[in-house]
């Protein structure tokens, strides 16, 4: 017990010193960042991560009122910039899109979650990302494709009405049924077929568990060599969720790819 306590104290002190030195050495590099609240090594990062999404919105409003339309928060291994101005967002994402289009290398947990940046929302700017974007716009977002899903929307509407009618009298949580109906539509648009209710529930459960664990698992991005020792149970839980998601999605993706090749 004493040995483990000594190891944990040593690691904690080392991490704190390293973070402090990194913060001091990066002052010159980050002096051009937008203003924001002062950064406190380690402690400040964890305090931000403890806030829920509901708590972040009023906090950001207050910070924008104090610091302006662009605010820098040190809420993770990298500084995060929040833009509240439509004009500035257009300037950064459209007029100077080529400058800001790329993404930094993924962090430890993000690398696993995004299959090493093999997603349209995480891939580095380049041929792979352009392929993902082309597939998304041509197969999902193109007006002709959206019109072709009219029967699917009617099918989902029938599911929603049937679910609402099947509920006993009293208070009904309509949001749950709307979420399930929309998930049915999204799954059909992704996999091109009407899946069984059991399969849809499995996909919904896999995605829901990962989303609910976002804040819980985001801390794994901090100094992975340390967290894999101190938070090894959380890393195990994270890998188990990723494995569960893969068991659910990979067979469906493989079947869809095979059907397209045969077609």
Automatic annotation (TrEMBL):
<dbReference type="GO" id="GO:0020037">
    <property type="term" value="F:heme binding"/>
</dbReference>
<dbReference type="InterPro" id="IPR036396">
    <property type="entry name" value="Cyt_P450_sf"/>
</dbReference>
<dbReference type="InterPro" id="IPR002401">
    <property type="entry name" value="Cyt_P450_E_grp-I"/>
</dbReference>
<dbReference type="GO" id="GO:0016705">
    <property type="term" value="F:oxidoreductase activity, acting on paired donors, with incorporation or reduction of molecular oxygen"/>
</dbReference>
<protein>
    <recommendedName>
        <fullName>Cytochrome P450</fullName>
    </recommendedName>
</protein>
<dbReference type="InterPro" id="IPR001128">
    <property type="entry name" value="Cyt_P450"/>
</dbReference>
<dbReference type="Pfam" id="PF00067">
    <property type="entry name" value="p450"/>
</dbReference>
<dbReference type="GO" id="GO:0005506">
    <property type="term" value="F:iron ion binding"/>
</dbReference>
<dbReference type="GO" id="GO:0004497">
    <property type="term" value="F:monooxygenase activity"/>
</dbReference>
<keyword id="KW-0732">Signal</keyword>
<feature type="signal peptide">
    <location>
        <begin position="1"/>
        <end position="19"/>
    </location>
</feature>
């Amino acid at each position: 017990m004493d040995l483990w306590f000594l190891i944990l104290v040593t690691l904690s002190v080392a991490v704190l010193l390293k973070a402090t030195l990194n913060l001091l050495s990066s002052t010159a590099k980050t002096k051009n960042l937008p203003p924001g609240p002062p950064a406190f090594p380690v402690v400040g990062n964890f305090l931000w991560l403890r806030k829920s999404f509901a708590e972040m919105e009023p906090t950001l409003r207050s910070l924008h009122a104090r610091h302006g339309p662009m605010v820098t928060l040190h809420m993770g291994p990298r500084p995060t910039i929040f833009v509240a101005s439509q004009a500035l967002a257009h300037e950064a994402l459209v007029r100077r899109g080529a400058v800001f289009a790329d993404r930094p290398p993924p962090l430890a947990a993000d690398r696993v979650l995004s299959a090493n940046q093999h997603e349209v929302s995480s891939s580095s700017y380049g041929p792979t990302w352009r392929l993902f974007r082309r597939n998304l716009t041509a197969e999902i977002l193109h007006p002709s494709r959206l019109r072709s899903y009219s029967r699917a929307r009617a099918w989902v509407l029938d599911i929603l009405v049937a679910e609402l009618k099947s509920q006993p009298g009293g208070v009904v949580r309509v949001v749950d049924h709307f979420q399930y109906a929309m998930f049915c539509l999204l799954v059909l648009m992704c996999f091109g077929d009407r899946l069984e209710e059991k399969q849809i529930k499995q996909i919904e459960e896999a995605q829901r568990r990962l989303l609910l664990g976002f804040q819980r698992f985001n801390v794994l991005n901090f100094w992975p060599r340390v967290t894999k020792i101190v938070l090894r149970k959380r890393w195990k839980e994270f890998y188990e969720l990723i494995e569960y998601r893969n068991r659910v999605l990979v067979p469906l993706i493989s079947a869809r790819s095979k059907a397209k090749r045969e077609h």
